[in-house]
Amino acid sequence: MNLPIRHRSGAPWQRGFPWSEPIAAEFGDLFERMNRFLESAALTPALTEAMAWAPPADLHETDEAYRVECELPGIAREDIDVEVGEHEVSISGELRECEREGVLRHRGRPTGQFAYRALLPVDVKSDEVTASLSDGVLTVTIPKAQAAKPRHIEIQG
Q: Looking at the structure, do residues 42 and 56 belong to the same domain, yes or no?
C-alpha cells in the first residue's frame, strides 16, 4: 500500500516557525521577563549563599601527571582547600564579599562558596601532589602512579 508523501521545500530551519509573528513576539517578551526575574533573584542573599559556584579551570594531561589550572583571583591561600583521592581532585573554598559603601545595583562577580571537581581516569600519587597560587591562578600538579609497563620476558630453556 502506498501512502501519499507531502514534499516541503527547504530544510526545517529554512521554513520558519509555524506560528505567526505576534505569537513569536510574545515568546520574546516572555524570555525578557524571565531574564529580569532571574537576575533579580540572583541578588537575593538567601539564594546566593546556598549555591556554590564553579571557578573556570583547565585540566591538562601529560605522560607523567595531570595539571589543573584554576582561576581564583582575589582569594587568599588560606581560603582554598585542595583534596586529591585515587581518582578525583577537588578544589573548594570561599570568596568573601568586600565591604563597600552604597547600594549594590549589579553583581557580576561571584562570592561565597565555590567548588571544582574532576575525575581522573588513572591512579595517582596523592602523596606527591603539589599546588601553587600565583597571579590568581591555582596550579595543582598530580603525578600519575606508575602502571605496570610491558616488558619482554626471556623464556628459559
A: no
Does residue 149 form part of some domain?
no
Q: Identify whether the C-beta of residue 83 lies closer than 8 Å to the C-beta of residue 33.
A: no
Q: Are residues 85 and 119 in the same domain?
A: yes
Give the C-alpha separation, 149 to 151, whole Å.
6
- Beta bridge pairs of residue 143: 65
Q: What is the DSSP string of 76-130?
A: -GGGEEEEE-SSEEEEEEEEPPPP-SS------S--EEEEEEEE-SS-B-GGG-E
CA dist., res. 58 & res. 81, Å (int): 17
The pLDDT of residue 42: 62
Quick one: cell of 20? Answer: 505567526
* Residues 28, 57 within the same domain: no
pLDDT (average), residues 104-114: 82
- Single pTM value for the model: 0.60
